[in-house]
Amino acid sequence: MKKAIYPGSFDPITNGHLDIVCRAASLFDEVIVAVSKSADKTPMFSLGDRVRMAELAVGDIKNARVLPFENLLVAFAAAQKIRVLVRGLRAVSDFEYELQMGYANESLDPNIETIYLMPTLKYAFISASAVRSIHRHGGKIEHLVPLNVAEYILKKSLKCT
Question: Alpha-carbon distance 59 to 137, whole Å?
């Protein structure tokens, strides 16, 4: 069985992320959406919330599942017995960062392979940071994230006020 890991902070998961999951799911027998703790990024949503939103987003994709992780990605991949990482590229700036991360991961584990997928053009402009900013300022995010994720975020926001 060919398996891959699609890692990220997914703070929150967006339609662009979901597009990459769908593309990876068509290439691999199983895709693990690995939600990192990302404490150094000070995420807007808790790890539990980000995992739940990712589960909501990928719920209809039969060969995708969501797992949290707190350690090095290569250690997580080794524990899952997976050697392929999937990363999304929206722009040249993403490529430079992702290339560095790919080389860093390979330096830690030479058996790790990283493949890069581009989202569909209509999702290329979406970033989780833009979604967070729009949401913080009261803007609509329903066109940027899966509808069930937007509903989850709205419910969380109403509880916080």
Answer: 29
